[in-house]
Amino acid sequence: MKTSQNISQNIYLKPKERLYICLILQLCTIIILLVPTLYTRYTGKTVILQTRPTDPYDTLRGYYVALEYDISRVETLKKLPGWNDLVRQYPGINSQYYPVAEKTNLYVILHSETINQPWRPLRVTTTLPATLPENQVALRGRYEYGSIVYGLEKYYMPEVQADFGNQDIFQTRQIRLGQPKRILLLFKIDSQGNPAPLEMQVTDTSMNGRIHRYRF
User: Fold this and answer.
1) Greatest extent of the chain over all pairs of C-alpha atoms, in Å
2) What residues make up the domain containing 166?
3) Which residues, in sequence order, are CB contacts of 163 under 8 Å at separation 6+?
C-alpha cells in the first residue's frame, strides 16, 4: 500500500512543474518548426522571383499579403519541357481545367540570366535533379486546385499593412491601369527545393524608383 502511494506521489506534478513542462514542450515545437527554415536560410542559394498581388483589388487581407507568380499558373508551366511527361504520369480528372492529379509534387527548374534580376523557369520535372549548373535551382511545388503552390504565397507582414494604408505602396490605381509596381521576392532555396523567404522589394514609381524593403 505504501509503495503505491509513493508511486502516485512521484507521478503527481506540482502546478509549477506542469507549467515548466508545457513551456519546454512549446519551445521544442517552435524549434522543430524553425530549424528547417533556418537551415535553408543559411545554406541555400539566393533566388529572385517577380511577383504580384493575387487580387489587385484586395492585396492585403488583415495583416497578410497574398502573392502569386507566373510559375503558379498552369498556362506558364505547360509551355515548358517536361510538362507533358508530368501530365502523362499523373493525369488529372479533366485535361483542360485540371490536367494534373491533385497534390502532385513537382520541381520547376529556375535559371538566372543576369545578376540581381528575376530568375526564369526552364523546365518541369517530377524528380529532384541530382546536380544542376551553378545558375540553376530546383523549386519544389505542388499542384492544387488548378494552380501550383510553392509555400511563397502568403505572409504575415504588419509593416506592409501600415505602408499600404499610409502610402498605398501597391498603387491599386496603377494596377487597374495595367501599370503595376515592380514587386520582387528574394528567398533562399536549399538542395531539396525548399524555399525560405528573405525580403520583399516594392519599387515605388511615384518616388523616383525608391524601393520599399520588407524583411521576413
Assistant:
1) 83
2) 43-215
3) 169, 212
Co-location of 24 and 102 in the same domain: no
Q: Model pTM?
A: 0.75
Tell whether the model's pLDDT for residue 8 goes beyond 60. Answer: no
Residue 72 shares a structural domain with residue 94: yes
pLDDT digits (tens, 9 = 90+) for 86-117: 999 999 998 888 999 999 999 999 999 888 89
Give the residue carrying C-alpha cell 511615384: 206
Phi/psi of residue 185, each to 5°? -115, 125
Q: Which of 18-27, 44-53, 63-72 has the lowest mean pLDDT?
A: 18-27
Q: Are 24 and 57 within one domain?
A: no
- Rounded Cα distance, 20 and 16, in Å: 6
The span from the CA of 125 to the CA of 164, in Å, is 38
- The verdict on 47 and 121 lying in the same domain is yes
Residue 38 lies inside a defined structural domain of this protein = no
Q: Buried (b) or exposed (e) across 156-180, using 16+ Cβ within 10 A?
A: ebeebbebbeeeebbbeeebeeeeb
Q: If you count them, how many residues does the chain have?
A: 216
Counting residues of the chain whose pLDDT is more than 70, the rounded percentage is 64
Quick one: CA dihedral 70, 75, 81, 87, positive or negative?
Answer: positive
Tell whether 8 and 91 lie within a shared domain.
no
Q: Is residue 49 included in any domain, yes or no?
A: yes
Residues 27, 124: one domain?
A: no
Q: pLDDT digit string (tens) for 149-158? A: 999 998 776 6
200 - beta bridge partners? 185, 214
Q: How many domains does the chain have?
A: 2
